[in-house]
């Protein structure tokens, strides 16, 4: 009987707004963005939760007291997937597993990476919006999305749209202001472009990256007309290899140019040593990933020929 009552209670929650409070803590569930923003303006120090996998560590390890928690998993305005104007538009709270079927058709390399991102259970609740908002320098989705020239839509103090590459300011800091929230992520669909994702970690699955590299671009007549190289774990934020990109743009896709790019990428980053990898290791791996990219793309070209 208790189980039936609990199930009935949970079914009711999924259809209405919820506000549970104690003396100093508040927990909110909203069905739409309008109601969420209305309550958001009444409080400060808000915490947004979808999967809660990253936030949980703040409580268990850092003993942080979360005073105002907003659960976004039932908010219809933050849970959607649409293809419009040659963009894949994803609600910020949409579970990763719901996005995968779309990515497998549009960017299979991106989808493959997500299978290493976390277990089935984690992917059922974790969201790209949460991964971006946590502003981790080793977040796996941010380098790929920056490489694809993605944008995010932010709501709160009005509505604004920015390129994801401009979202991260410094370690764990973003351009999000008080009472603002990521509404959606807009990923351009570039059918003629290539995308490569490389995650290096101590374990193959369910592990934090030591370094992550995403390479996106367009080759015409064996030359790089567009090229974006973005790394996680190489700086305090996900960062482009600006000098390497500049060198490769409009250059031929040949061994000599890749070898030179491997030298230049050492000028793009000054990585730190930590428990996951040394600075020397990270620098060497960044070079090795460019080599891997060259060999993979060369092999693909030969197979097409």
Helix content: 25-40%
End-to-end C-alpha gap: 67 Å
Number of DSSP strand runs: 15
Instruction: Return the CATH class of the largest domain.
Output: Alpha Beta
Number of helices: 11
Pairing-aware structural class of the strands and helices?
alpha+beta
Spatial order of strands in the largest sheet: 5-6-11-7-8
Indicate how many domains the architecture comprises. Answer: 3
From the coordinates shown, what is the CATH architecture of the largest domain?
A: 2-Layer Sandwich
Protein name: FAD-binding PCMH-type domain-containing protein
Organism: marine metagenome
Keywords: FAD, Flavoprotein, Oxidoreductase
Domain FAD-binding PCMH-type: 20-192
Layout of helices and strands:
Elements: H1 2-13, E1 18-21, E2 26-29, H2 33-40, E3 46-49, H3 53-60, E4 68-71, E5 81-84, E6 87-91, H4 96-106, H5 108-117, H6 120-123, H7 128-133, H8 141-147, E7 151-156, E8 158-163, E9 168-170, E10 173-174, E11 181-188, E12 194-200, E13 211-220, E14 223-232, E15 239-240, H9 242-248, H10 255-268, H11 279-304
Parallel strand pairs: 2-4, 3-4
Antiparallel strand pairs: 1-2, 5-6, 6-11, 7-8, 7-11, 9-10, 12-13, 13-14, 14-15
Task: Describe this entry's structure for a reader.
The chain has three domains: about 70 residues, Uridine Diphospho-n-acetylenolpyruvylglucosamine Reductase, domain 2 (2-Layer Sandwich), CATH 3.30.43; about 110 residues, Uridine Diphospho-n-acetylenolpyruvylglucosamine Reductase, domain 3 (2-Layer Sandwich); about 110 residues, CO dehydrogenase flavoprotein, C-terminal domain (Enolase-like, domain 1). Strand 3, helix 3 and strand 4 form a beta-alpha-beta unit. It has about 300 residues and is α+β, with helices and mostly antiparallel strands. The strands form four sheets. Strands 5-6-11-7-8 form a five-stranded antiparallel beta sheet. Strands 1-2-4-3 form a four-stranded mixed beta sheet, with no helix packed on it. The chain has eleven helices and 15 strands. It is about 35% helix and about 25% strand. Keywords: FAD, Flavoprotein, Oxidoreductase.
